[in-house]
Design goal:
The protein is of the alpha/beta class and 354 residues long. 36% of the residues lie in helices and 22% in strands. A hairpin with a 6-residue loop joins strand 4 and strand 5. The radius of gyration is 20 Å and the shape is globular.
C-alpha cells in the first residue's frame, strides 16, 4: 500500500481513453486552497490530451480531501439598490433566451440584453442552459445544498438530487424540502429511463471513472432526454496563463481535467450524442482572482490566500471580457458546457424528431 502524507493512493499512469502512458504535466503540487495533505502530480496523455491526477486517492480515503471543503455553489450578493434591476434583467433574459416565464420579465428587454452574449452565458448557467420546453423530471448529480434544485422547482421542473456529502444532504432536505439520495449515482439504483434531464455541474472532474458515470446517466435518461455537463476547461485562457496556479486544477480533488475534445470522447464512449459543445467565460472573474491568490500563496508559503483587492477585481472583469471575445476564435473559456442526449436508434427516427 502506498501512502501520500496519510492518504492511501495508487499510481495511475495510463490514459482512461486510449490507455497510453501519460507524460508529466505538473509535479510537486499541493492544495493551497483547503489544505488537503499530499504531494500530487498531473499527467497528460500524449495522444488525446486527457489530464489526470497521479497518484490517485483510494475511494475510502477521498473524504479526507474534502474535510475543509465547501459547497460548489458560488453565492451572489447583489447590492440592495441594484437587486430589483438585476432580478428584472435576469427574468427577462430567462424568458427571451430560455423560455421561462417569470414575474417581472419583459420580452423586449430580454431580447435586447440577450444580444449581450456574456450576459446570456451568465444567466444561462443558473439553469444549466436547459430550455423551459424540456421541462419534466430533473436529476442533479452532486446537488450540494439543493439551491439549484429549489430554483428549478420554482421554474416548473419536478426535481430530485444525488449527493455524497451528508451535511449538504441534510440542508437540501431540511431547508428546501427536497428529495435527495445520500450516496453515489450508481448506489441510488434509479430505474432505467426515469429522467427527462440530468445535470452534472462541476462534478465529473471529481469522479474516479467519468465514463462509468456518463453510462449511468445514459441509462437513466428517457429517449431524447438532455444531459447538461459543465466542467473546467484545460484549454482555457486562464489555464494557459496561470499553469500550475490555475484555480481550475483544484488539486487534489479534481481527478480528471478535460478539453472539449476529451470530454466529447468520454461522452460518446458512454453511448451519448453531443448536441452542443462550447466554452464560456462565465466564471472568468472568479478564476482570475482565485488564481492570482494561489500564485501569491505559492510564492510565499507563509502568506494566506488573499481577499481580492479592487485592482484585482478590475483585472478580473477585463479578463472576463477579453476571454469572452476570444471564445469566438478558439475554445478559451474557463468552462466547457456540453448538452448531450441518448443516441438515436436510426436515421429515420432522427429525421422524425427534427
Amino acid at each position: 500500500m502506498i501512502e501520500n502524507e496519510g492518504i492511501r493512493v495508487e499510481e495511475t499512469r495510463s490514459c482512461l481513453l486510449c490507455e497510453n502512458e501519460g507524460n508529466l504535466l505538473y509535479g510537486g503540487l499541493r492544495d493551497f486552497l483547503f489544505g488537503a495533505p499530499g504531494i500530487w502530480s498531473l499527467m497528460r496523455c500524449p495522444n488525446c490530451g486527457l489530464v489526470w491526477l497521479n497518484p490517485r486517492p483510494l475511494p475510502d480515503d477521498i473524504g479526507k480531501l474534502y474535510s475543509q471543503y465547501y459547497t460548489h455553489q458560488i453565492p451572489e450578493h447583489p447590492q440592495k439598490n441594484l437587486a430589483g434591476i438585476r432580478k428584472r434583467a435576469k427574468a427577462s433574459i430567462l424568458q427571451s433566451c430560455f423560455g421561462y416565464h417569470m414575474d417581472g420579465s419583459n420580452r423586449i428587454l430580454g431580447s435586447v440584453l440577450g444580444r449581450i452574449g456574456l450576459l446570456e452565458e451568465i444567466i444561462g448557467a443558473g439553469v444549466r442552459y436547459l430550455k423551459a420546453g424540456d421541462k419534466g423530471r430533473l436529476l442533479d448529480v452532486g446537488c450540494g445544498n439543493g439551491l439549484f434544485l429549489d430554483r428549478m422547482r420554482q421554474y416548473g421542473w419536478d426535481v430530485m438530487g444525488v449527493e455524497t456529502d451528508g451535511c449538504a444532504v441534510s440542508v437540501a432536505r431540511e431547508k428546501f424540502g427536497l428529495e435527495v439520495f445520500h450516496g453515489s449515482l450508481e448506489e441510488a439504483m434509479f430505474p432505467e429511463g426515469c429522467f427527462d434531464a440530468i445535470t452534472v455541474n462541476h462534478v465529473i472532474e471529481h469522479i474516479s471513472d467519468p465514463i462509468r458515470l456518463l453510462k449511468e446517466c445514459c441509462r437513466l435518461l428517457r429517449p431524447y432526454g438532455k444531459l447538461a455537463i459543465i466542467t473546467p476547461n484545460m484549454d482555457s485562457l486562464g489555464a494557459h496563463l496561470f499553469c500550475e496556479c490555475w484555480r481550475g486544477l483544484e488539486i487534489p480533488r479534481h481527478q480528471f481535467l478535460f478539453t472539449q475534445k476529451t470530454l466529447r470522447a468520454c461522452i460518446e464512449a458512454a453511448g451519448l450524442d453531443v448536441q452542443d459543445a462550447r466554452t464560456t467565460a462565465n466564471l472568468a472573474c472568479f478564476i482570475w482572482a482565485a488564481s492570482c491568490s494561489i500564485k501569491k500563496k505559492e510564492e510565499s508559503l507563509e502568506r494566506p490566500l488573499d481577499v481580492p483587492s479592487n485592482m484585482v477585481r478590475l483585472e478580473a472583469l477585463a479578463f472576463q471580457i477579453l476571454e469572452y471575445g476570444l471564445c469566438w476564435l478558439k475554445e478559451y473559456g474557463e468552462e466547457i458546457v456540453v448538452l448531450a442526449s441518448k443516441k438515436n436508434e436510426s436515421g429515420i427516427d432522427k429525421a422524425m424528431r427534427k
